[in-house]
């Protein structure tokens, strides 16, 4: 099994298998493969050690996995600390990019809470 950037690549075409690494999408994957001089249709398990080393060299040039996750997390922490609008939305678990929340936004807001008729909330009159 091929292993790159700490991730076991699945037995799929190499262009798809590289997208399993955090920070590498389809476009970046195609660029990395072209720079390494490999064929996009080759399978991940069929790559030789030499081909894997070429890919490792290309992946080292970009930020992936742990380093990228850490940077993204620190960016979000900074937004929350300076109490900007985006930070407030992240803290409350709401959409940050201007989407409406009266309807939709279920992914960010969670499951719908149904109000029960005749039941009062504790502490309110």
Order of helices and strands: EEHHHHHH
Strand segment count:
2
Helix content: 40-55%
Our count of domains comes out at 2
Rg calc: 22 Å
Task: Give the end-to-end Cα distance, rounded to a whole number of Å.
Answer: 64 Å
Percentage of residues in DSSP E strands: under 5%
Uncertain stretches: none
Mean pLDDT: 89
Shape: elongated
Question: What keywords describe this structure?
Answer:
single chain; 125 residues; mainly alpha; Helicase, Ruva Protein, domain 3; 30s ribosomal protein s13, domain 2; 2 domains; two-stranded antiparallel sheet; 6 helices
Describe this structure in words.
This protein is mainly alpha-helical and 125 residues long. The protein has two domains: 3-61, Helicase, Ruva Protein, domain 3 (Orthogonal Bundle); 66-109, Irregular (30s ribosomal protein s13, domain 2), CATH 4.10.910. Helix content is 45%, strand content 3%. The chain has helices at 14-17, 26-36, 49-60, 65-81, 85-92, 106-109; strands spanning 3-4, 7-8. Strands 1-2 form a two-stranded antiparallel ribbon. Strand 1 (3-4) and strand 2 (7-8) form a beta hairpin. The radius of gyration is 22 Å and the shape is elongated.
